Q: What sequence folds into this?
């Protein structure tokens, strides 16, 4: 039907020529240090971000873009963002202004469509000079979010194991890693740290270094297992052993996972590693113990969503887990060499199940072994007000009503003194 086709072309052509992108929605999240604003877009957009001071603002200019003003101007905000405004700029462009509660570092990026979401513009804000401004801490315990390092194995030139249908380990583990990060992002008292968030090669030692730099509290390395004959199946969880592998298959696996670094051009056999393993500090004994506890918690939860390869946590000499002084585990999600498991590993719903199981394991571990006062942000009942916090934001984060929060703290107004400790009902 040529006529119908013609009409389609007429309708589509303005988009094809790169004209208007619309903002369809605005969402904001905040934790104690970061605020993230996500704009849902109808398509990809060229954008430019800059910051202004006195008062502090972030300005985002979107080329050939538009929005219904009430959608942005009425958006609920929290964290560092006090208000969002939008208006036409240079005739065809859109200027979005975020009014901030204080100084912040800002970065932005476009996220391509995935799952139920289309194109998104993400603006991440991190409060600056917080430490100088914060009042002297009177509470003895340090309260902060648990940082969970998520290490998607392999990447870039190193595909990891390859399934019979050609599935790459590096891709499926990244899929699970991203989902796990999304879940942790929403988990009160926890924050994800993605060691690798795209298809890129990162040497094993740099992975550990990144976790250390960001003060990760746990390190979870994700992999998919493979054997020459396709029959083996099920998930396994490993921890590091300095004294040698608990079984021969664990030793072979460690050799295979460790060989990743040879692909990236870095030899493992240099002196640093040897020296490091000889000079391990005494805190390692405690770390080995807590790694086993974390591994066990994750293994139990994985057993709830699929088969287990071995009913017990195994140990082997994984380089990526070496010299980390926080609980560190390596999860083999399944056997990518097994055609049935390869298919499941690729399945989005199954990836979510795996991610949820790992999070549940992390939660179990935290609840059972971590001293609660230190990690009171999520499970505990107190919160210290930070610059940029709003009562609404705090109420939402803890899923309590505004009134109950006001009553519990005898607050007559919504003014929040920075540094005040609130009871969370
Ligand atoms: Zn691997």
A:
């Amino acid at each position: 039907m040529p006529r119908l086709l013609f009409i389609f072309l007429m309708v589509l052509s303005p988009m094809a020529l790169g004209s208007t992108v619309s903002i369809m929605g605005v969402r904001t999240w905040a934790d104690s240090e970061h605020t993230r604003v996500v704009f849902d877009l109808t398509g990809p957009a060229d954008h430019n971000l800059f910051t202004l001071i006195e008062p502090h603002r972030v300005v985002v200019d979107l080329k050939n873009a538009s929005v219904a003003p009430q959608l942005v101007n009425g958006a609920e905000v929290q964290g560092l963002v006090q208000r969002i405004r939008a208006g036409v700029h240079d005739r065809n462009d859109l200027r979005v202004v975020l009014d901030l509660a204080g100084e912040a570092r800002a970065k932005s990026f476009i996220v391509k469509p995935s799952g139920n979401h289309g194109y998104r513009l993400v603006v991440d804000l991190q409060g600056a000079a917080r430490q100088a401004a914060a009042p002297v801490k009177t509470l003895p315990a340090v309260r902060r979010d648990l940082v969970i390092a998520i290490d998607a194995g392999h990447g870039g030139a190193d595909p990891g194991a390859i399934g019979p249908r050609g599935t790459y380990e590096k891709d499926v583990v990244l899929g699970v890693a991203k989902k796990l990060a999304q879940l942790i992002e929403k988990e009160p008292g926890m924050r994800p740290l993605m060691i690798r968030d795209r298809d890129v090669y990162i040497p094993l030692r740099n992975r550990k270094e990144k976790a250390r730099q960001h003060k990760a509290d746990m390190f979870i390395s994700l992999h998919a297992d493979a054997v020459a004959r396709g029959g083996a199946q099920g998930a396994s969880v490993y921890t590091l052993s300095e004294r040698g592998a608990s079984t021969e298959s664990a030793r072979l696996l460690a050799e295979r996972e460790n060989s990743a670094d040879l692909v990236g051009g870095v030899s493992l056999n240099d002196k640093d590693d040897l020296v490091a393993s000889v000079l391990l500090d005494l805190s390692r004994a405690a770390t080995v113990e807590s790694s086993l506890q974390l591994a066990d918690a994750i293994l139990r939860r994985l057993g709830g969503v699929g088969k287990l390869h071995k009913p017990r946590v195994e140990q082997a000499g994984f380089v990526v887990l070496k010299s980390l002084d926080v609980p560190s585990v390596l999860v083999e999600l399944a056997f990518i060499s097994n055609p049935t498991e390869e298919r499941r590993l690729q399945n989005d719903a199954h990836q979510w199940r795996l991610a949820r199981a790992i999070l549940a394991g992390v939660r179990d571990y935290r609840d059972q072994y971590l001293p609660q006062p230190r990690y009171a942000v999520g499970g505990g009942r107190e919160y210290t007000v930070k610059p940029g916090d709003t009562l609404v934001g705090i109420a939402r984060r803890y899923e309590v009503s505004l009134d109950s929060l006001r009553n519990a703290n005898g607050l007559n107004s919504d003014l929040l003194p920075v540094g005040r400790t609130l009871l969370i009902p």
